[in-house]
Amino acid sequence: AQSVTQLGSHVSVSEGALVLLRCNYSSSVPPYLFWYVQYPNQGLQLLLKYTSAATLVKGINGFEAEFKKSETSFHLTKPSAHMSDAAEYFCAVSDLRSNNDMRFGAGTRLTVKP
Amino acid sequence: NAGVTQTPKFQVLKTGQSMTLQCAQDMNHNSMYWYRQDPGMGLRLIYYSASEGTTDKGEVPNGYNVSRLNKREFSLRLESAAPSQTSVYFCASSLRGGNVPDTQYFGPGTRLTVL
Lengths: 114, 115
Description:
By secondary structure, chain A is mainly β. Chain A contains no helices and eleven strands. In chain B, strand 7 and strand 8 form a beta hairpin.
């Protein structure tokens, strides 16, 4: 079965600094990869997704992620952090054989310091 | 257009009690899902419905049942609640049916405590 590992349960950056949230996946078939964001006391909302088209994917709020097959990674980045980026971020993986079973990582909580 | 709605928002149960969590979507989506979220474990799929009239088990189905009442509604039932089912429950929906991975849209969640 597919799975994802998010390295670092907590990441803290200063406002204006680079944001880098790490995600590695495991899948025996070509994966579909997603990043979701969860603000306090809310449901998840999609940031971006990779579905076998361009390897560099741009999402909302200035986030982007690059699919690297050789490294089995799909790290999320943003050049300059904003206070409003403080939230929990989840990486998720699915594929055409998984029958709607999307697997989520444990999440990374991003803190942005003024 | 409310998206995905869930009721109730909060619930406290005693061990052995039963309850049904309700979920509805107004986006004409084909697939619907129930997840539970526990600290440090991300979201885990309990059950899903790829299309109206079908339901399938996910990663953690034990202790739960579901009903896809119609295309809009997908309910989750706990027949005999246990403390291990204390969690935040999320319903989600996606446009496509079948096996094609698609963006999922999430409800606001139900915070359930079982004493």
